[in-house]
Amino acid sequence: MALARALAVGLVGLDGHLVRVEADISAGLPAFVVVGLPDASLHEAKDRVRAATANAGFGLPPRRIVVNLSPATLPKSGSGFDLAVAVALLTAAGVVPPEAVEGVAHLGELGLDGSVRAVDGVLPAVLAAARAGVRRVVVPADAVAEAELVPGVSVRGVHRLAELVADYRGDPPPGAPDLPDPLELADPVGPPPASPVPDLADVVGQADARAALEVAAAGAHHLLMTGPPGAGKTMLAARLPGLLPDLDEEEALEVTAVHSVAGALRGRRAALVTRPPFEDPHHTASVASVVGGGTGVPRPGAVSRAHRGVLFLDEAPEFDARVLESLRQPLESGELVLHRARGAARYPARFQLVLAANPCPCGRATGRGLDCTCTPAARRRYATRLSGPLLDRVDVRVTVHAVTRAQVADALPGEPTAVVAARVRAARAAAAERLRPHGLRTNGELRGPLLRGPLRLPPAVTADLDRALERGVLSLRGLDRVLRVAWTVADLRGATVPDRDDVGRAAVLRGLDAPAAGSAR
User: Fold this and answer.
1) Which of the residue ranges 152-161, 332-341, 465-474 has the most confident prediction, judged by mean pLDDT?
2) Is the Cβ–Cβ distance between 244 and 214 less than 8 Å?
3) Three-state DSSP class for residue 156
4) pLDDT tens sequence across 423-467
5) What stretches of 304-359 adopt beta strand conformation (E)?
6) CA–CA distance from 185 to each of 3, 180, 188, 439 (Å)?
7) Do residues 269 and 145 lie in contact, with contact meaning Cβ atoms separated by under 8 Å?
8) Burial level of 289, CB count in 10 A (0-12/13-18/19+)?
9) Cβ neighbours of residue 337 under 8 Å, at least 6 residues apart?
């Protein structure tokens, strides 16, 4: 017996690492040992591989088998190593010629009958293999379209282990594969059907909220909507993704990779995700489900699945405080680093946060608040559930008032999504052109050094904000946020530089009183 090798890819977050699977079959008491920091599911690969090879017609000899996953210091998880382990063992057993598997990466889970099944993370794994110089990969047949999204890589899809072995040996292909497992028939066999995009024209009234939504979309600004139940907060938030432009190729590849690791592409003939995603977790969601986590290597949560899209937290004050506070770091950095005992996983998380909240627990503390049944203490507790540091990171804040009967009767049809989206695209294009030398794309990414340096506005334009900062009405971060929004307001009206009116309107959108900021609307 001999030593043989095959290639696989291990994922830690979205970072892929080429793994050399070494298989040694030697004399000794029958045993099957897997070493190299495998997790529980990878430990179970020895039973899946032994049964799969036997049912494929290539039983492993009753010898001592040792499989090493190198580098041994890299945590490895999941069933995606099964195919590489089987190929390495069959090569060591003399079934497969070593030269046939040289330089080929193998990804896939094995069924006991020798079938090759889809796994999560095929796209980032193939990307990592390509960066490491691998030009040929073998993946489950169901994942071929996803793997082919990576240019410059030759992809071979297989249904069964016997099919791959015959190809490596140069034998005639085996008979037609068996019918797929009935459980897998439930998976879609094509791209997910596109959900109808709700139209902004459906929203009755709410001129201020619609304007705030447009500004938020144009600058990728975070948004807080406060108002009574039924005023239209959720309706407005659901229409925000329709205002956003399509993702470019680089962004689409990032987003698709995250969704691949999250398992959203499994069982589909995947295509790039070209529309901004929309995530709206329930207020009972845990920290791990929103931010990401789990045992072993952490998996992406809702904030990463919303990368380059929208994360909507309805009834935001009802979320666990730990969930809300955990958003502060990704809101600033645009990525999440999740540390666990077995290692750290890094996921992108540049999302647009939209918060919706009632004015009080009962939701009726509007106007004079005569119908509100909440105690003053309950109102205070409810108001403090959204902490100051979190709210300081929200650029646009708007009150959504209840629609009156007169407004319903006299309401004219609002602008449709297509019209507003065109203005948003034009504003984003102007911002991207201006910010290209600084490596940014949207005004929502602007930082203080830029706003106080190359993009500094004249003192006459920012005089009111400077006074608000001096009086403590604004923090320095809040000042930067107002200036960000002012640039977006200017972009929407086609101006090259914000004027004092743009700054005043941005201050009002920030939630400041017009007199305090010198706004002229």
Assistant:
1) 152-161
2) no
3) strand
4) 999 999 999 999 999 999 999 999 989 999 999 999 999 999 999
5) 310-313, 335-340, 343-348, 352-357
6) 39, 7, 7, 45
7) yes
8) middle
9) 344, 345, 346
Stated pTM of the model: 0.87
In this structure, which CATH number among 3.40.630.10, 3.90.600.10, 3.40.50.300, 3.40.50.1580 belongs to the domain 200-443? 3.40.50.300
Residue spans per domain, the chain:
3-186, 200-443, 446-521
pLDDT tens-digit map of 160-210: 999 999 999 998 888 655 545 554 544 444 445 556 678 998 888 888 999
C-alpha to C-alpha distance for 104 and 243, rounded to whole angstroms: 43
**CB-based contact 494:439 (threshold 8 Å):** no
Asked if residue 346 lies in contact with residue 337, where contact means CB atoms within 8 angstroms, the answer is yes
C-alpha–C-alpha distance, residues 411 and 151, integer Å: 52
Question: In the structure, how many helices (H) and strands (E) does the chain have?
Answer: 23, 18
- Residues paired with residue 212 on neighbouring β-strands, in sequence order: none
271 exposure class (CB count in 10 Å sphere: 0-12, 13-18, 19+): middle
Both tokens of residue 50? 């032994």
246 by Cβ neighbours in 10 Å (0-12 / 13-18 / 19+) ranks as exposed
3-186 matches 200-443 in fold: no
CATH code, 3-186: 3.30.230.10
Tokens for 431? 């911002």
> Distance between CA 260 and CA 305 in Å, rounded?
10
Mapped onto helix, strand or coil, the DSSP state of residue 199 is coil
- The CB-side HSE value for 337 (13 A sphere, CA atoms) comes to 5
Q: Are 180 and 156 in contact (CB under 8 A)?
A: no
